[in-house]
Write a structure and sequence with these properties.
Length: about 250
């Protein structure tokens, strides 16, 4: 359990998250994920990184219980950990392909929004329930998946969208039966990994360089409002209702 790295095929590094029951990561888990992705990207033998998860869903965001118990220190740690993990995916020296099943929520959106490609199972759903959990953030990454007004509606309502809907918007490469998720992801990763290793790294740097939005700076800006909500007591009030009947 935790974060592991393997090499299923030549030129491909598979980074897998397995944190039962729902892959909601504690602070240490976000930093471990960041280290794994950066380490895989630095390996000169690797030409593509696949980011995957075990269990019912891809990622359920941060560990809310850790935030409730840890106070300001836990919030700062979660902010820094998420920032590190999202940045590691974006800055990975080679393309990152995300394999998404089940729920992809909160921090999961930060990961897939910064990935270079997404392959999703038919049961995958994507969303930011931040306003229901006393937090803000990752609108930066949701905006990379859907048009501006849809992003805002999803953000303000905490609703989710299906893999099929994201495929229609062009942000998901393929939608496949859950049993075929790993093979479909490896097929795309293998096609990328067949490219020249030095050239694919130059291509990744070039593509990042022409992005119209600096995702690191814009996400850091959002995080400031998360901390402000905490300082004002708003976050604790909302999180105190989290998981209770009717909420």
């Amino acid at each position: 359990m935790g974060v592991s790295t393997s090499s299923p095929e030549k030129g491909i590094s598979l980074v897998t998250v397995d944190v039962p029951p729902v892959n909601a990561l504690p602070v240490d888990g976000w930093f471990a994920l960041a280290d794994a992705v950066r380490g895989a990207g630095r390996d000169p033998r690797v030409r593509c990184v696949v980011l995957a998860a075990e269990g019912r869903g891809f990622n359920a965001g941060v560990d809310i219980k850790e935030l409730q118990a840890g106070g300001a220190d836990a919030l700062v740690g979660a902010n820094r950990g998420c920032f590190a993990a999202f940045a590691a995916v974006y800055e990975c020296e080679v393309p990152v392909v995300a394999a998404v099943q089940g729920f992809c929520l909160g921090g999961g959106i930060g990961l897939v929004g910064n990935a270079d490609a997404i392959v999703a199972a038919e049961d995958a759903v994507f969303g930011l329930p931040e306003l229901d959990r006393g937090a803000l953030g990752a609108a930066t990454h949701l905006a990379r998946l859907v048009p501006q007004h849809l992003m805002r509606a999803l953000y303000f309502t905490s609703r989710t969208v299906s893999a099929a809907e994201l495929h229609a918007h062009g942000s998901v490469w393929r939608v496949v039966p859950r049993g075929g998720l790993r093979s479909a992801t490896m097929e795309l990763a293998g096609e990328i990994a067949a490219k020249d290793g030095e050239l694919i790294r130059l291509a990744k740097a070039a593509i990042n360089g022409i992005d119209p939005v600096d995702v690191r700076r814009s996400y850091r800006f959002e995080q400031g409002f998360t901390f402000e909500a905490s300082a004002l007591g708003v976050a604790d009030r909302v999180r105190g209702r989290f998981g209770k009947e009717g909420t």
